[in-house]
Design goal:
Blueprint: H1 13-22, H2 27-36, E1 39-41, H3 50-69, H4 79-88, H5 93-121, H6 129-151, H7 156-168, H8 176-184, H9 191-223, E2 249-251, H10 252-277, H11 310-318, H12 321-341, H13 346-365, H14 368-381, H15 386-389, H16 402-423, H17 428-446, H18 448-451
Antiparallel strand pairs: 1-2
Helix pairs in contact: 3-5, 4-5, 5-6, 5-10, 6-7, 6-9, 11-14, 11-16, 11-17, 12-13, 16-17
């Protein structure tokens, strides 16, 4: 048992209360470890605000979700009407609903930007591999949460979007039909599906999400934050003052807490402007078809997921029977290249070629729809392996060869183009572009062990570069 701290009888009431709490719960200790005595690099820039903004949006989603659940009815016959009731009759219900729907899109905006910052500054590199893995797990969890929440308004796009996505699981060999039936709880998307998705959206997934967020922050504070230079400020060779504090760091509070308050203020201005003036955001945040009650007998002319899923939906649609031949050529080409160019035992070469032939046979035997599902899932799963794919000598884009910046720039443009094509109705030109985009997306990561080593890196400074402003 820890020794109880004593305090002067003449101390202010607030100090006495804090001392009483500290003797029973490490409140001050936690504040010091994670805020006032947590030293962060002093050269943080604009890109380092999105982690705090993601935490803010998470709180907004939880709070608004609690108020929505008070009036929402998870019943196929009543769900759409209950959302209309919230919008029209519940005091300030329209505001809470729009905060929640806009918050869903805002969450993905800040998370995508947060992940991009990690990508360009090498925040996934040693010793932050686990921080990155927890972050990718949060992203995966967030996608599940958004997908399940998307069904709840029980509009036309909610219903048919869920119908399309759930039916994709049926493409999995052997277990697919049973798995799709288990997810739906019925032979079609209906009341059982709505109840399943509601329970996961409101209870199960948020609990996992909160646990992963806590693990992400704890892991980050254990190894320390990265910075735009990719220089470790807390390593054994990093300069420190007499108290052992890094000379290139500043306490998170008050320096970055004030910095984040400024960012939060700007974010809330934009967030509020969208809520009050453009909550549907031209049909991207709330599709117009979703203001029509779900009708199992009337299929919309064009079914597409919400904008933040569309890059992966484009990849799914890109995998056609014709595309399978291109993928087979890539698999066989990679196997031949490995055998010819890489030094490996003869037995290993035989195994590589045998595996390539087996994969080719599977790709020809199994329907392209399954491989589309596999590609869509693989596009997210491959992010988990990024710490072991990047072999560049330096972390930050600042000190990599200049052409690396163009590579990352093309990657972002490609991702945006895939997102745009995922919203559009299918077309022959769009199909070809999405196929090229899909190959580039996976090539970017799978060939990273090779291309990340190319070129001459710039000298990395021993201390962070910082100019007071």
């Amino acid at each position: 048992m820890a020794e109880m701290k004593e305090i002067s009888p003449n101390a202010p009431v607030a100090d006495k209360l804090l001392n009483w709490v500290d003797n029973r719960f490490p409140l001050s200790k936690l504040f010091k470890e994670h805020m006032s005595e947590y030293y962060a690099p002093k050269n943080f820039n604009f890109w380092y605000i999105f982690g705090s903004l993601a935490l803010l949006v998470l709180v907004i989603q939880i709070v608004t979700g609690i108020f929505l659940v008070m009036h929402y009815k998870p019943d196929a016959a009543l769900a759409f009407g209950s959302v209309e009731y919230i919008m029209r009759d519940v005091p300030w219900g329209w505001l809470v609903r729009y905060m929640h729907s806009t918050g869903a899109s805002a969450f993905f905006v800040v998370v995508y930007l947060h992940m991009f910052r990690g990508l360009i500054y090498g925040s996934y590199r040693k010793p932050r591999e686990l921080v990155w893995i927890f972050g990718c797990a949060i992203f995966l969890c967030l996608m599940a949460e958004a997908f399940m929440g998307y069904l709840l308004p029980w509009g036309q796009m909610s219903y048919w979007g869920a119908q399309v996505i759930v039916n994709l699981f049926a493409a999995i060999p052997f277990v697919g039909p049973d798995l799709a039936l288990l997810i739906r709880g019925d032979y079609v998307v209906g009341d059982a599906t709505l109840n399943r998705f509601f329970s996961f959206h409101v209870i199960a997934v948020p609990l996992v999400l909160l646990g992963l967020v806590a693990a992400h922050i704890i892991a980050l504070h254990e190894v320390g934050s990265n910075n735009p230079d990719g220089v470790e400020i807390k390593g054994p060779n990093a300069p420190k003052d007499a108290q052992g504090h890094p000379l290139d760091g500043v306490p998170f509070h008050p320096y970055y807490s004030v910095h984040d308050i400024y960012a939060v203020s700007l974010f809330l201005m934009v967030f509020s402007a969208i809520i009050f003036f453009a909550p549907e955001f031209g049909g991207y945040f709330l599709e117009y078809n979703n203001f029509i009650p779900a009708d199992p007998l009337k299929t919309p002319a064009h079914i597409a997921p919400v904008w933040y899923f569309t890059p992966y939906y484009s990849m799914l649609r890109a995998i056609t029977s014709e595309m399978m031949y291109a993928l087979i050529a890539c698999v066989l080409g990679a196997a031949v290249f490995s055998v010819v160019k890489l030094k490996m035992p003869t037995m290993l070469k035989a195994i590589v070629l045998g595996a390539a032939v087996a994969i080719t046979a599977m790709m020809l035997a199994i329907d392209a729809k399954f491989w589309g599902v596999l590609v869509m899932g693989g596009a997210v799963v491959i992010l988990f392996f990024l710490p072991w794919l990047d072999n560049c000598e330096v972390k930050s884009i600042r000190y990599r060869p200049d052409w690396h910046k163009y590579m990352y720039g093309i990657f972002v443009i490609n991702f945006v183009v895939l997102a745009y094509l995922g919203v559009q109705p299918p077309s022959s030109i769009g199909e070809r572009v999405s196929q090229v985009g899909t190959l580039f997306y996976f090539g970017f990561f799978l060939l990273m062990p090779w291309w990340s080593r190319l070129g001459q890196t710039k000298p990395v400074p021993t201390r962070v570069t910082f100019a007071a402003h």
